[in-house]
Write a structure and sequence with these properties.
Layout (H helix, E strand, L loop, with lengths): L1 H40 L2 H10 L11 H19 L2 H6 L5 H31 L5 H30 L3 H20 L14 H11 L2 H13 L1
Helix pairs in contact: 1-3, 1-5, 3-5, 3-6, 5-6, 5-9, 6-7, 6-8, 6-9
Length: 226
């Protein structure tokens, strides 16, 4: 039954997943090409100074890509469940409701993690060819909250769509936006790239804390349809 559920989710989001993967890939490749061109046209010391001392983020175009990816995947995956009342069937499968909902959500998170992992590997490996490890570490700390914000917005979208009460949807939605904003506060253009160097683990922990909230919304939905 679990394999059938996962296959159903894949059929639902496969084209969106492929589209998002391509968009992420092209953005990252564009950043890498721009960096290579910069080193071929400008003195390396100036680029080092701009990146390390002045905190110039040559990869700034990537900032909102994970956020948009998480938002779109969440909508494509869960909107049909509510719009066509498919969630009723999902909650009445010969499988625990909690397992069904968590499996759907974990499938989406896994799909996003796969896309973002490829992004990070390409960007960091390419950057390591031009910058010392200290700067590459700074890049890692900078993009990590951006990537996590994509997972956070996805989780909140899943919770909002499963939640049957419009008033709670609004509250959950605004709460999600507030939390997502925190993931970007320390990396505004011209700001420090090490803002979250000591607190990045809190953002990871937050993902594990909010993910089970979909079970609360699912319980609310099931009580509503009954």
């Amino acid at each position: 039954m679990l394999k059938s559920l996962i296959y159903k989710e894949w059929l639902k989001v496969r084209w969106t997943f492929i589209g998002l993967a391509l968009i992420n890939f092209f953005v990252i490749i564009s950043i890498c090409v721009s960096l290579a061109n910069a080193f071929s046209m400008v003195d390396a010391s100036k680029i080092y100074a701009d990146t390390a001392a002045m905190q110039g983020l040559f990869y700034f175009d990537f900032r909102y890509i994970p956020l948009i990816s998480g938002l779109l995947l969440g909508i494509v995956q869960f909107y049909p469940e509510i719009n066509s009342s498919r969630i009723k069937l999902t909650l009445h499968l010969p499988m625990k409701e909690s397992k069904s909902l968590m499996s759907m959500q974990l499938f989406g998170i896994g799909a996003l993690v796969l896309i973002f992992l490829v992004d990070a590997i390409i960007l960091l490996n390419f950057s390591s060819k031009y910058f010392p490890s200290e700067i590459v570490d700074g890049i890692t700390i900078t993009i990590l909250p951006w990537i996590l914000s994509g997972l956070v917005i996805y989780i909140f979208v899943t919770i909002v769509f499963v939640e049957p009460s419009w008033s709670r949807r609004v509250i959950i939605g605004f709460t999600g936006l507030a939390f997502v904003d925190v993931y970007h506060l320390g990396t505004i253009f011209g700001g420090t790239i090490y803002t979250y160097s000591r607190s990045w683990w809190m953002f990871v922990l937050f993902l594990f804390l909010i993910s089970p909230l979909i079970l609360w919304s699912g319980n609310n939905y099931k009580r509503g349809v009954k």
